[in-house]
Write a structure and sequence with these properties.
Elements lengths: L2 H4 E5 L14 E3 L5 E3 L13 E5 L5 H19 L5 H5 L9
Length: about 100
């Protein structure tokens, strides 16, 4: 996978609509207050105008590990091997995830 798919980054003041017109980004908080082109996260932390959205994976290596576990389990089954866990539940993976 490409790094861009894992980490989407943008500047709040650089967001544009479909026609390319620059938009004012407004963050609205629970108490009803707002900020323009920046977001407040916690006391003692400066407001941020740049954000990074990450997918719920620790890294692309974690994705490779998940694929390896599936491949190993498929091979285990193709060889006709089994154990107590796979006999009770066919969806059990053999390798550590």
């Amino acid at each position: 996978m490409k790094y861009l798919e894992w980490n989407m980054r943008w500047k709040m003041k650089a967001i544009k609509d479909a026609e390319g017109n620059k938009l004012n980004s407004i963050a609205t908080y629970v108490d009803g207050t707002t900020d323009k082109n920046q977001v407040f996260f916690a006391e003692g932390v400066p407001k941020s105008g740049r954000l990074t959205a990450k997918k719920n994976w620790a890294s692309s290596m974690q994705d490779h590990k998940a694929g390896s576990v599936t491949a190993y389990t498929d091979l285990y089954r193709e060889l006709g091997l089994s154990n107590e866990a796979t006999e009770l539940d066919s969806s059990v993976r053999v390798a550590v995830y």
